[in-house]
Amino acid sequence: MLDERRRYFRINERVGIAYQMLSTGSALSGDGPEASFLVRESNSKFAGILNEIEALDEAIEHELGELTESHPAVVKLVSLFNQKLERVISHIVLDNQLISRLARRLKEANISACGIAFVNDETVDVGTSLKMELTLYPDEQTLLTRGRVVACEPELEGAGYYWRVDFFGMEKADQETLIQHVVRSQSQQLKNKLKV
Q1: Beta-sheet pairing, 105-112 with 129-136
Q2: Alpha-carbon dihedral sign for residues 173, 100, 132, 186
Q3: If we measure between CA atoms, which residue out of 115, 107, 121 comes closest to residue 161?
Q4: Overall fold of domain 11-23+104-194
């Protein structure tokens, strides 16, 4: 991993970071079927549920169309229940999006295509596996990956802990997006230094 780390540029910048601790130690070591799990899986399950609901809505509308003339009161009642369910679902979707935004914290980080380091307010065991969502600015590009904590040390200035996390299981497209972002940001930072 050290050789790989040297192949990538590293930059310091503000990154949106959301994470969930999965395990400590080797329970999710990156080997075996668990290693293929990404945060995207939960997002795709949510999208799948929404697609199923949409398909059910279409089926309900079709059946209601068949009953409109023969049972208008039943059609009205079922339509009202369907509207009620749609409002509940809309609130759940909005809550899910809000929770996702609130969970993400903007942090100063040292980031490359193979890992990230940042100060956090809590300690974590080395070896802990994480589900991570990273937001790159200014384009607000969201990347989903897993990470393994390789170091967690008290911050020298006393406030928090310095986490170092190696990425694993990142999709190739996300890794390419991250590499391009790092190269672009590094180029911009160098231009800014030359102007000063």
Answers
A1: unpaired
A2: positive
A3: 121
A4: Thrombin, subunit H (2.40.10)
Structure confidence by residue, pLDDT tens digits, 117-164:
999 888 999 999 999 999 998 888 999 999 999 999 998 877 889 999
Q: What is the DSSP string of 70-119?
A: T-HHHHHHHHHHHHHHHHHHHHHHHHHHHHHHHH-EEEEEEEETTEEEEE
* pLDDT per position as a tens digit, 25-81: 444 444 433 333 333 444 555 667 777 888 888 888 888 888 888 999 998 898 888
Q: CA-CA distance, 5 to 70, in Å (whole number)?
A: 70
Of residues 128, 133, 109, the one with CA closest to residue 119 = 109
Tell me the Ramachandran region of residue 162: left when phi exceeds 0, alpha when psi lies from -120 to 50, beta otherwise: beta
Residue 122 DSSP symbol:
S
Burial of 141 (0-12, 13-18, 19+ CB in 10 A): middle
Q: Domain coordinates of the chain in residue numbers?
A: 11-23+104-194, 40-98
Model-level pTM?
Answer: 0.58
Q: What interhelical angle do 72-103 and 39-67 show, nearest 10?
A: 170
Pairing of strands 105-112, 115-120: antiparallel
